[in-house]
Structures are given as C-alpha cells and as structure tokens.
Amino acid sequence: MHIRVLTIAVLAAACLAAGAASAQQPPAANPLDAIPDAMPFDIPYGPPISLERATAAIRAAVAEAKKRNWKMNVAVVDSGGNLVAFERMDGAQLASIAISEHKARTAAMYRRETKALEGGIQAGFNYLITLDGVIGSRGGIPLVVNGKMIGAIGSSGGTGSQDEVCAKAGAAVINK
Predict the structure, then answer these.
(1) Considering the entire predicted model, what is its pTM?
(2) Could you tell me which residues come within 8 angstroms of residue 175 by beta carbon, excluding any fewer than 6 positions away?
(3) Angstrom distance (rounded) from CA 21 to CA 92
(4) How many angstroms separate the Cα of 172 from the Cα of each of 56, 64, 94, 96, 167?
(5) Contact 126, 93 (CB under 8 A)
(6) 85 CB-near residues (< 8 Å, 6+ apart)
(7) Rounded CA gap, 64 and 66, in Å?
(8) Mean predicted confidence (pLDDT) in 93-101
(9) pLDDT band, residue 27 (cuts 50/70/90)
(10) Residue 14: its pLDDT value, please?
(11) Mind giving me the DSSP string for 72-85?
(12) What is the DSSP code (8-state) at residue 112?
C-alpha cells in the first residue's frame, strides 16, 4: 500500500513539473496569425481574354513543349475561369486534359500561380486543400494586362516543373 501511494505521489509531482515547464514555454508563433498590411495577390479582374490572345498564348506554350519534345495539354480561361481555348498535343496524357483546365481556372480564381498553392500545401498549410477548386500543382499562371487579370493559362502532361515551363512560355506572350 505504501509503495502504491508513493508511486502515485511521484507521478503527480512529475505531471505538475511537466505542466509548469510547458506553461513557461512561449507559444509557438503561428504564421497564419500574421496580419498583412495589404491584401496579398490583390490583382483586379479585367475584361476577359479574347480568343485571339488565348490562342497566341497556347501557341507559345506548345512551341516550348515541341522544342523540348514534351507532350502537353494547354488550356486558357478568361478572368471568370471559363474555358476560352484548349489544345492537346498528339500523345499527351489524357488525364491532363482536365488538369490543365483546372490549373488555369485555379490561377484565375485565386489570382496567383498554382505554384504558390503547391508551396503552401508542402509547407503544411493544409487548410489550402479545403478551398473550393484548388489544385496544388504548378503549371497555372495568371494572365495580366495593364495590371488587370484577363485570364490564366494552365499546362499539364509532364512533371510539375515541365508544366510550369510551358505555361510560363505561354504567359510571356500576354504578361509583357
């Protein structure tokens, strides 16, 4: 009986000591608690991209893919995330048809490159995967003219970095 009481007393003292030690530790800073002075990614929406400009962006992305012997799917959406133009290169992965459009739509709707969402998810900001329409994979780039978003381009079919290279080539035609 005496050993049992002694054991309980020792365990209670250890719990109290652990509680006191943890109470003395400052709480870990949560980066989500930071309050920025300005809105991040605050690009105003502009008029929708024209078919002519969307096609020019796709041609540039496909040219980059051909130069590197990659098979890509490339989609361009307008400032509201609606499909304007799409091209599937011969032999490009079928699953990437929808993914290229999803990347473009995400970049337009969230006004940022999909690479930023990918980075946030990899950094442990798991709340990002709960947001409607998010795809956390690089290859979606906003298209901005005169400081206003007119649409976005998405590329898929290779690795994320290959997709990004092609999307950036297409975006470079618009984002001057």
Answers:
(1) 0.81
(2) 141, 142, 143, 144, 145
(3) 58
(4) 10, 11, 26, 22, 9
(5) no
(6) 51, 54, 55, 58, 75, 76
(7) 6
(8) 98
(9) low
(10) 46
(11) -EEEEEETTS-EEE
(12) S
